[in-house]
Predict the 3D structure of the following.
Amino acid sequence: MKLLSLLVAVATLAVTVTTIAQETVNPGGLATIRGAATIDETRAADKLKRVIKDKNPIARNYVHQPPVIPHQTRGYRIDLNSNKCLSCHSWKHAAETGATKISLTHFQTRDGKTLSDVSPRRYFCVQCHVTQADAAPLVDNTFEPVESLGNE
Amino acid sequence: MLKSLWTFLKSPSSAAMWFILAIGFAGGIIFWGGFNTALEVTNTEEFCIGCHEMQDNVYQEYRETIHYANRSGVRATCPDCHVPKKWTDKIVRKIAASKEVWGMLTGVIDTREKFVDHRRSMAEREWKRMKENDSLECRNCHNFEYMDFSEQGNRSVKMHSDALASGEKTCIDCHKGIAHELPDMKGVENW
């Protein structure tokens, strides 16, 4: 008899604990880039970020950094038929357009052999070069760019 | 019955001259209005994408561009770029469009593969047309004289005040592929 009542008490306790637990989901103190929202909430979407329209070249942060794109690239296609970036940034056109020329590294294969035109491994510009948006850093950090490249 | 109708049409009327002229004048208005309305119907986006060759290929490409949807909602649809606005040039183009009807009937670009094969020649035809009329269709909306260079970005200011102002280049020289995807650009000048 005592065992039975003990079992009933334990069962009741278990049921109450689980029902209470379901009402407040505990995220375990985890805040992600998504914010400190819990799984059962639908968080409002962030506003779309604006890309910088047209700016002077932005100083690089470390040597060999692919410079970021200081202008918008809406609708610029890079495919087998055409490469819109190269129509301003190739050596052929850069003098007329005033755009930054692609560096010699873009003509080299991965074995260091220099080709007479852009190397296929460097043809798809946006694999390394990105546009910039007016957005704050996602995570606070203490990164310092090198001074030699024009950063303060 | 036909003979009596013909006799009726042939024989002179008892109505006054002014009356007959007035009827003729009204008939002319109705005919001209109807003709023009029909012509303008063929000048709409809905009409152009009635052919699957257009709807499945160039229309889908155009939907991702700035002339389809943009910040201000000001659009350029098929006729704005491809049909001249002046009446004489428009009629010439409409008569030349019978070639397109023939092409549709004979299925020149009725599959995706055929369309892709023809893309370069079709593009070159349009570029040539625009170069010859000094990008008139572009200038229908984008009037160079009223471009505010203080509002444009660095690159636009440079290119427009150099090449465009001097008349050395016209819009289509640089702004290719603005509404539809580019063909194989090998050998195209300035690209």
